[in-house]
Amino acid sequence: MAKATARWEILRQHVEDGVPLTVLAGEHHIGLTTLQRWHQSFKLHGKPGLEPVAPGKRGRRMPSEFVNLVEGLALAKPPRTTAAIHEQVNKVALHQGWAPVSYSTVSSIVGAIDPGMMTLAQQGTAVYRDKYELVWRRRAERPNAVWQADHTELDILVFDAGHQPVRPWLTTIMDDYSRALCGYMLFTGAPSSLNTALALREAIWPKKTADWPMYGISDVLYVDHGTDFTSHHLAQAARDLHFEIIFSAVARPQGRGKIERFFGTLNTELLARLPGYLHNVRNPKPGLSIGELDMALGEFIGQNYHQREHQEIKETPQKAWQGNGWLPRLPETIDELNLLLLTVAKPRIVHRDGVHFQGLRYISPLLAAYVGESVILRYDPRDVAEIQVFHRGQHICKAVDPAHERATVTFKDIQKARSARKRQLRGQIKERIATVAEFLPAGQPATEVSQPDPAVHRAQKTKLRTYAEDE
């Protein structure tokens, strides 16, 4: 109304005081026709009629068929540039007798198309679903009702058992209701059913620390379609432990968003401040062993992540999991759990001096009654200093290697020792061969067992009748 008031102050001199419009036009440098139009609007509508009227849209009106044509070309596959659409629609306009349009007009029509429609037409239902479809976010009704399991390759370099830089993998088990991490497994190499089983064992069995009270067997395990999750062993463990495996929809990452967000939190809040993080420097150098990273990860989860309020559930994961107190399902013994989850099983014969496995010798007084019997060995690859021995499906004992009874020996340590021994033997072989070449007189080769010519041997062994077509 400010402009209407200003116009009335000028026009009032003509309406109330009788000053001619020609005089007002000269004094205020306003066109006479403009003052006449204001006067006419005042007589028809009063002071509100002096308010400026928004100008109408200029330009010629295009046929609706023309707009549909532009939109159709923009939505069709393969995608066209705006310049190509402009050129093509003007050819059609010339043929139909329509007036040609400018590039900016075509560009404005294309730009006004619904982005969701454009995505669906050009990129398909999968991309449209991930960007525009509504997502129903659910939460389990109680702790241990649903667990989620997933893997990720961590963005950090560490030293493996051979002191070589590697990127470790992490398998985590998350409770859907409380967002608590019930268990995890840190390892090198590709994910496997063994590492998944070890993560489940840690999640199910009670921990020794007060800041990590989560344990028990969940009703449902929610996983993707990885080969370790679809293995027969995991299916058998689910039947024995009485939980259900539910697989997420293929190519639908939204269902695993909760555990994926934890991986993001781990990267930004823990790994980013550790040596060897891949995104801090151009050529990062590892500074931790995998055991030291495992310790740092356990402290972060138990003392930090579990103790702070989660933004979505509005309480700490530990408090949400504990609730008012309840008793989770649990196997009777750790030996029973090991029997169901430890997938590395090797048959062996009990000898008088114990059980031989991976170049080590394991003994236990309880093996005395099974000398000569076939047994099944199950072991944790993280520590092969001891093994679990089973006979006909029953757990017999825990056998230990006397040479490493107080130490932790990993399977990779055994492999490293084997490789070192092979290198040592090859070096000794080369020394012996060099000695023979040094002391044997020239022209007198070392006596060797004559080996038959393989070609002659094959020709003598097989005599087939051939024909002209075979030549």
From TrEMBL:
One of its GO terms (molecular function) is nucleic acid binding. InterPro entries: Homeodomain-like_sf, Integrase_cat-core, RNaseH-like_sf, RNaseH_sf, Transposase-like_Mu_C, Transposase_Mu_C. Gene3D superfamilies: Ribonuclease H-like superfamily/Ribonuclease H, Transposase, Mu, C-terminal. Residues 444-471 are annotated as: Disordered. One of its GO terms (biological process) is DNA integration. Residues 139-325 form the Integrase catalytic domain. PANTHER family: TRANSPOSASE, TRANSPOSASE RV3428C-RELATED. This is Transposase. It comes from Glutamicibacter arilaitensis.
